[in-house]
Specification:
The protein is of the alpha/beta class. The protein has nine helices and eight strands. It has an eight-stranded mixed sheet with strand order 1-2-4-3-5-6-7-8, with helices on both faces.
Length: about 260
């Protein structure tokens, strides 16, 4: 048996956000929740068979796969909602889905986790730094310092960041206000990181800096580095290792709460 997606449309901010809900397959009435944040950040997730999602639902997690405001597929106005608002509306939508699913009596809110890769990792870290909603999180090659990203990335990505946050010089205060690395002291829950050592988009130093800041503050944080991976993991053995380590991480967090 597989977990089949249910369409999500839920209130967030001044409007609504979208996504798909996958029930846990172990029959638990109020299971832990794992919120998936796609990369892009203006791409989208789709209700198709995703082995990663089934991995979690088979292990007793409900999954909310989000198309937060700014995602493609819901019209121009929805897509434009992310303009200059990256790190704000996407984070609001990630937090709001926990409230919505709690009201629907579908999850255990104190066992809500968040995870994302690349831009999804940025949203994850912002959610952990600026809100007290999630019990822990996972960042896979995620952005922790968007200003540093503007210095290391190519022109296309640089112009994309101008649209998402603003001009790095003119809007320096906005960048600073949305830089998880600068607010690492506000993260009070465990975090796990996964990073390719050959990543030229989100360079490994971003993950190292964030990990060091959290560990300095006494937060249970850990990282796994893959010497042969770039931006996004390609090797099946590395993908399997990362999934297993992420599952063990959440399991340990939940065990510590019992």
């Amino acid at each position: 048996r597989i977990s089949r997606p249910r369409t999500l449309r839920y209130p967030s901010g001044t409007g609504h956000a979208h996504g798909f809900f996958y029930p846990a397959m172990n029959g638990e009435k109020k299971p832990p929740l794992l919120v998936f944040i796609h990369g892009g950040p203006t791409s989208a997730c789709y209700p198709m068979l995703d082995p990663r999602i089934q991995y979690w639902t088979q292990r007793g997690f409900a999954v909310a796969d989000l198309n937060y405001r700014g995602s493609t597929g819901y019209g121009r106005e929805y897509r434009q909602a992310l303009h200059l608002n990256w790190g704000v509306v996407d984070v609001e939508d990630a937090c709001a889905v926990v409230s919505y699913l709690t009201e629907q009596d579908l999850i255990a809110p104190r066992r809500a986790f968040i995870r994302g890769g690349s831009a999804g990792g940025y949203t994850t870290l912002c959610a952990l730094a600026f809100h007290k909603v999630f019990r822990a999180g996972a960042s896979l090659y995620g952005v922790s310092d968007p200003i540093a990203l503007t210095r290391s990335t190519h022109k296309f990505e640089g112009d994309y960041l101008d649209w998402l946050i603003g001009d790095p010089e003119r809007d320096a205060e906005r960048y600073a206000a949305r830089t998880p690395l600068l607010y690492a002291n506000q993260i009070s829950v465990p975090v796990i990181f996964f990073q390719g050592e050959l990543d030229a988009v989100v360079v490994p130093q971003q993950t190292r800096d964030m990990l060091q800041a959290l560990q300095y503050n006494g937060i249970p944080a850990q990282a796994h580095y893959y010497p042969d991976e770039r931006h996004g993991f390609r090797k099946a053995s590395n993908q399997a290792h990362a999934l297993e380590q992420e599952w063990l991480f959440y399991s340990q967090v939940m065990q510590a709460d019992t």
